[in-house]
Amino acid sequence: MKCLIISDSHGSEDELQEVIERHRSTVDAIFHCGDSELKHSSPILHDTYPVQGNVDIPGEFPEDRAEDVKGTRVYITHGHLYNIKMTHVPLSYRAEEKGARMALFGHSHVPTAFEDNGVIFVNPGSLMQPRSRPEQTYALAFFEANGEAQIRFLERKSGEELIDLRQSFPANE
Questions:
Q1: Rounded distance, CA 131 to CA 158, Å?
Q2: What is the pTM of this model?
Q3: Is beta strand 64-69 parallel, antiparallel or unpaired with respect to 49-50?
Q4: Structural domains in the chain, sorted by start
Q5: Cα 152 from Cα 61, distance rounded (Å)
Q6: Exposure winner among 29, 94, 153, 170, fewest CB in 10 A?
Q7: Per 3-state DSSP, what percentage of the chain is helix, strand, and coil (rounded to 5)?
């Protein structure tokens, strides 16, 4: 399974569309972790799984969702309702409730990937307003048939991988 993970594009339609089109034909799913500032009817979000961010139009998207992609359960939320800037624990509980192997979130604009209790947590950073580093980022997640996973972070303009952020995770036992 391979998926594209985007967050915090903050109304930047051309940039968002460019990243989606760059990867659309090579991924199994496209997730937007909120703060797109677009309407649900936007053609840019066609065939994607968006969630509601704290600056999105209220009620435009679901607050969270769980999707099964090629046998991998993915939980998606923006993170603001889980106090994600302070701790990942409430999000961890929710991901466990949903039976997720991967939990996707945004809100902090900081790209990160880590594993806790068998769940891989991924924040792709911000497509337009980065914090903690200068690059505007998004992520690709790869899950092998044996359950091993790799998260790669890419720079928005070039699509080049930021090697220092790459994370690999063994299969769950």
A1: 19
A2: 0.96
A3: unpaired
A4: 2-169 (3.60.21.10)
A5: 26
A6: 170
A7: 20, 30, 50
